[in-house]
Automatic annotation (TrEMBL):
<dbReference type="GO" id="GO:1902201">
    <property type="term" value="P:negative regulation of bacterial-type flagellum-dependent cell motility"/>
</dbReference>
<dbReference type="GO" id="GO:0000160">
    <property type="term" value="P:phosphorelay signal transduction system"/>
</dbReference>
<keyword id="KW-0597">Phosphoprotein</keyword>
<feature type="domain" description="Response regulatory">
    <location>
        <begin position="336"/>
        <end position="451"/>
    </location>
</feature>
<dbReference type="InterPro" id="IPR011006">
    <property type="entry name" value="CheY-like_superfamily"/>
</dbReference>
<dbReference type="Pfam" id="PF08668">
    <property type="entry name" value="HDOD"/>
</dbReference>
<dbReference type="InterPro" id="IPR050469">
    <property type="entry name" value="Diguanylate_Cyclase"/>
</dbReference>
<feature type="modified residue" description="4-aspartylphosphate">
    <location>
        <position position="385"/>
    </location>
</feature>
<dbReference type="InterPro" id="IPR001789">
    <property type="entry name" value="Sig_transdc_resp-reg_receiver"/>
</dbReference>
<dbReference type="InterPro" id="IPR029787">
    <property type="entry name" value="Nucleotide_cyclase"/>
</dbReference>
<dbReference type="GO" id="GO:0052621">
    <property type="term" value="F:diguanylate cyclase activity"/>
</dbReference>
<dbReference type="GO" id="GO:0005886">
    <property type="term" value="C:plasma membrane"/>
</dbReference>
<feature type="domain" description="GGDEF">
    <location>
        <begin position="515"/>
        <end position="648"/>
    </location>
</feature>
<feature type="domain" description="HDOD">
    <location>
        <begin position="19"/>
        <end position="215"/>
    </location>
</feature>
<dbReference type="InterPro" id="IPR013976">
    <property type="entry name" value="HDOD"/>
</dbReference>
<dbReference type="Pfam" id="PF00072">
    <property type="entry name" value="Response_reg"/>
</dbReference>
<protein>
    <recommendedName>
        <fullName>diguanylate cyclase</fullName>
        <ecNumber>2.7.7.65</ecNumber>
    </recommendedName>
</protein>
Amino acid sequence: MPPPIDMKRFEQLKAVGDLPSPRGVAIAIIRLTQTADVSMAELARVIKSDPAFVGRLIKAANGLVAENRRAVVSVQEALMVLGLPAVRTMALGFSLLSNYRKGACEGFDYGRFWSSSLLMALSMQALVQRVRVVPADEAFSLGLLARVGELALATLYPADFSRLLKEAARSPQLRQLDLEQTAFAMTHCELGAAMLADWGVPSQLVNPVLCFERPEQADFAEGSREAGLVQCLVLSRAIAQLCLAPELEQARLMPAMLRLSGRLGLPRGDFVSLCERIAREWGDWGKLLQIGTARAPAFGALCAAEESESKAVASPENGATASKEGGATGQGDEMPVLIVAADASERARMRALLEESGFSVHEQADCTQAIESAIDVQPRLLLIDWSGENCGAPLVRALRTTRFGRALHILVLLDADDDALLEEAAAAGADDFILRPIRPAALAVRLKAGRRTVMLQRELEREREELRHFAAELSISNRRLQEAAMTDALTGIPNRRFAIDRIQMEWAAAARHSRPLSVMIVDLDGFKEINDAHGHDVGDIALRQISSTLRGALRAQDVICRTGGDEFLVICPDTDLSAALGCAERLRDAAHGMLIETGGPRVRLTISVGVAMREPSMASADALIKLADRGAFLAKERGRNCVMSAQVVQTTA
Ligand SMILES: Nc1nc2c(ncn2[C@@H]2O[C@H](COP(=O)(O)OP(=O)(O)OP(=O)(O)O)[C@@H](O)[C@H]2O)c(=O)[nH]1
């Protein structure tokens, strides 16, 4: 993992007061959400003093509520759906957005930055709903702030950062992060991560932000939450880049984006609809936040074009070309080679020798221009004169930082056996050398060795690609298996296993934040009679329909699981006993009023519900469930079709 920023330096930057920071109401919201005993009413009162934030918060909450549910319309409801950590980072993100729409850094496109950050926020929210590495609400804010370090560099060093961005745009082979390291002795990733940590964002979220723009340096354990977050951030960035790219450029970006989504185990069709939804929401949010957006890319068409392209590459008609290029040493192999030498007659001699060996030859006299030719040609072999004035070391070093340059076989041409020059070439990244005057036989041997290395490397690449593909497929089937293991096959709602995991999670969160937690046991009344009277199949249909009715009658944050034959557990986070009793009554009413269509007889069902709320004295989640069970027993005893609790509702005077 890249090292974090030097904290002494960060404190100095903070002390100067130029780092982007939240203002106004956002500060009050952030402070309040950090207080352990903040009441929702107090927080809602502060939030309401900023109408713009109210709108954004409600919109964010509705993004998390399933489409078939009632929309969130009040601040209180939004707070319940989002939870305090998400509200805090959202206040932060939106406050920065309002106050840093413009700035002094001329080369930094503030509008594009926020548009891209918004895309990352929406992509992160959508992706984690599939991959479930963190709650979707936290992911939104993380996406919004993932590149805040760039805004900070633009604010701290407007002139220098502007120059740096221009240089990076002129020479794409020079990575912006390297330029930042040279110019400021830190990168925007390091600075952004330090800012997030300073704002109280937990390290499990900050560390992925530190790494995602150099994912190859991330060393999180395979399958860990951080590793998953890095992948989601990388893909979100790719989605943002594609949405903001000119139309002609989009097709070029599509294959890489599809590969990334494959690695996350997202089937192509799903991923395309996910991107379409993100682009739609981007437009809506753009209007709300007054951020410029572009026309949504035609994701479906881009994906189809990519598919037909990859089929064409793999088709047998093209196999001949592929195997020709893939042949070990055969004459006529069109492997591209780039010659870089100042002397025209020498270049011509080398060209003749190389063409004789069947290479496709490109040449360049000047080292500084050779980098552009190399990017165009993407040679497999480079033959470079190491003796002229314009030494090859910077070129070779720059090439080695690129993906294709790392696989390049580099052969240097020297005047004489000069150890110092040889060492310099090797240190820069050369693979082999040949002395002047060039002897055709010696060059042929060198080329043969070079070609062999290139071929082996290609085979390795192919194998690696196959492995990656295999790993992606495996992760898809693992995810499906995992989902299947947690889902009740008859009703499609979460099963007992899921319920056990989830209640433990909610129990821990409620204990940590001293927040209320209630559960309900829902038991169907006289279900055996339905089975006995109409048969098991009718019983199954009734079970499916009642599950769906109960699920539809719950709030977005409540979870219903089938824990037994005709028994369900409902988990209600952030809910006290009196609210849970109200909720249970709503369920009872929904079941009672329902006429179940079975294709044969119409059936009516009622439910008995037991409700319990967590108390600090309870030892574990089991005790809570037992108490709800006791309530269900009391409801049955009382004659069924009613709601009971073994606890007493505390009323405040
Ligand atoms: N059709 C169907 N029936 C099931 C399934 N799982 C359990 N059952 C039946 O559900 C019934 C539950 O019966 P009981 O526990 O006596 O409950 P009840 O008839 O609802 O009676 P009370 O709870 O006392 O009101 C049994 O007949 C089970 O065979 C299932 O997946 N499908």
